[in-house]
Amino acid sequence: MVNESANSLTVTLIDDDIPVYIQFQDSVLTIYEAESDSSTETAVCINPPIPQTYEIMLAFQTEPEDSSQHWVSTPSRIYSNRICSRVRVGPRHDTVIEPTQTFVVTLVSSTGAMVNESANSLTVTLIDDDIPVYIQFQDSDLTIYEAESDSSAETAVCINPPIPQTYEIMLVYIQFQDSVLTIYEAESDSSAETAVCINPPIPQTYEIMLGAMVNESANSLTVTLIDDDTPVVLQFKDTSVTVPEGIREFYASICLSPAFPRVFSVPFELRASPSATDDLRVAQYGAVEEKSVCAEIKITILDDEFRESTETVNLTVSSTNEFPVDSKMNTLVITIMDNDFSGQRLGDSSEIITCPTRSIIVAETKLFTQVVWTEPNGINFSSKRSGDYFPVGTTRVLYGNQGFLCSFNVIVEEMDTIAPTVYNCPIETQAKSVNNSQDSVGIFWSEPFAEDESCVPVRLQSSHNKSSVLPAGVTKVFYNFTDAFGNLAQCIVTVNISVIQSQHVDPFFYNCPSPFRVSASLTEYLTRVTWREPEVHGDVADSIITQTHYSGDYFQVGITNVTYRLSTQGVPSDFCGFSIYVYDKTKPFIFDCPESKKVKSCRGKRTAQWYEPYVRDNSNRPTRNTQTHYPGKTIFRFGTNKVVYTFLDDYGNSAVCSFNITLHRDGCSAMAPWTVLWIIVVALLLVVARNIMSIRCNVLQKNEENGNI
């Protein structure tokens, strides 16, 4: 068998008459005063890069000729069969660079070799680190257009003057570790501890002395001393909740008031009235645990079908150890709504709205699916709109105006026919066995991984692991990824191990990292990620490593490919690649969620106004938003109406803002003013008519007496 990748030999016949020059590899070098060795390296090379069979002696001249300030490793030479020779340049030991200095090194040959005049000088700049360096914005203004896809723009914070430093520009503050402490009277020592820290928490190479900058936003500590004699009662957090039809479970909170964490546990029991075993299920007993404020209880709606009528259940909490209970807040009124109607007239309306006559059924694999339909005309409010995102299951959609309501179902059925997506499939990897001294070779590669859109973990089967010992030749490694629905995705890695007859081993990477995942930062757009970088083995002389990222870099949410490339004298010799998946499990943060409010009405229905909440997500991407009501548009009726905003980010994390709009009758007269006015007018007309009839009767009577009739 012939190794197809190594069955050809390229022979180059060199014309010795080709002009060969010597020249500097770089034209500019910068040396910083603070660097540990205060020197740096460059190279003197042959151009074109053809190894010669003779040696070239080198010499250097400097301008200005002040040998007390700087040095160059001279003389030097380019050895036989080599292309380049390293040259070190730097200032003299203990030289104080003040101010910044520049000198030029010129290349000459002591053996008469030709010098490339356009590349025979090296400008060396010695940087005085005492130069004031500022940080500033790169731009002074930015313009962002509404139509841009992400509605954002980028700028940079830079160092001025633009001289790369050998250290990071970082502000270090001293501050309190905590901003609030709570001390209870009953605690044994009536004290608490905190700490004064350095921010950011990076060990510094210097001491924080008096006069260090103080973080003004975190230089105070608020200490609250709690009087344990304050009366504390047990109560529901909310006293009413409305559950739309189709909801199967929800949660309620039982809390201690005032909301101070206690050093004891408060057990409680729950009782529903009327007996509602056919409507809901809730645990009978629970407790607000020690040092907690609230306990959350789960309430399950038992019936599986849509309801035929709206029902109300009262859930009452009491303490099992005679702990005080707030009599006004110890009952939760649960209203289970019936929305199962195709249309219902509420009053006089000039326009009847018509909902779709059938349920809209779609099949998707995503957690939330966008559903589109033709909306009716003449609507004033709706629970959902065409184009909104719906979860798997059945959702009732409600439309209405001032006089008419209609509803229909949107059913999202889960159907997974898509195979998992494979990431970081290496396709091919290579290794070498020297002089055929080994029957098999240990080899390492980055393993692939897969994810499924159903969010169900995939099952992996592989023929080999990532650090197997394989024989020389070609071996195929199979990775099979199967999701919960039997959909298969495959990655095939071709491992090619060749035998070479040489004492020279090309440099190669060892311990290339496998793909891995990290959780995204809870509050920041970027996440700092570290890993153990691969090692380089073999003959590493004149080898250069280039990489796309460094351990400790900051990454966005999502998948980023990291690559390392190894080259020797400009020729690629090895490659290492892996993926970093920064996944987001943090729900969006809601700002300005409104408080519940009460509004008055004499007519039994009206709109309400409130400032709408907004969110910020740590992925720095827009969220998908849905809401049940709209300020100034939705018509509310007497009673408690729950308004719900739901915010969903691209990774399925949702946050909910909810509050109540309670509409009640207050300050209304028993009879409307226009009704009273009409009654008065009618009464006056009756009096006038009666008087007219009385006068007519008198006239008729007199005419009869006079014989005129």
Description:
- The model is unreliable at 145-151, 204-211 and 340-350 (pLDDT under 50).
- This protein has 1 helix and 55 strands.
- A 5-stranded mixed β-sheet has the order 2-9-8-4-6, with no helix packed on it. A 5-stranded mixed β-sheet has the order 17-24-23-19-21, with no helix packed on it.
- Among the domains are: 19-127, Immunoglobulin-like; 173-226, no CATH class; 233-336, Immunoglobulin-like, CATH 2.60.40; 669-709.
- With 709 residues, the chain is mostly beta strands.
- 5% of the residues lie in helices and 42% in strands.
Task: Reconstruct the topology from this structure.
Layout lengths: L20 E4 L3 E5 L7 E8 L8 E8 L6 E3 L3 E3 L5 E8 L9 E9 L11 E7 L6 E4 L19 E4 L12 E4 L3 E5 L11 E4 L22 E5 L6 E4 L3 E4 L5 E9 L8 E8 L6 E3 L2 E4 L5 E8 L9 E9 L11 E6 L7 E2 L14 E5 L3 E3 L10 E2 L6 E3 L1 E8 L3 E11 L6 E3 L4 E7 L5 E3 L6 E3 L7 E4 L6 E3 L1 E10 L5 E13 L7 E3 L5 E4 L7 E2 L6 E3 L5 E5 L6 E2 L2 E11 L2 E13 L5 E3 L5 E4 L4 E2 L7 E3 L7 E4 L8 E2 L1 E10 L5 E11 L8 H33 L4
Parallel strand pairs: 2-9, 13-15, 17-24, 26-31, 33-39, 41-47, 49-55
Antiparallel strand pairs: 1-3, 3-7, 4-6, 4-8, 5-7, 8-9, 10-11, 12-14, 16-18, 18-22, 19-21, 19-23, 20-22, 23-24, 25-31, 27-29, 28-30, 30-31, 32-35, 34-37, 36-38, 38-39, 40-43, 42-45, 44-46, 46-47, 48-51, 50-53, 52-54, 54-55
Organism: Holothuria leucospilota (Black long sea cucumber)
Protein name: Hyalin
Keywords: Membrane, Repeat, Transmembrane, Transmembrane helix
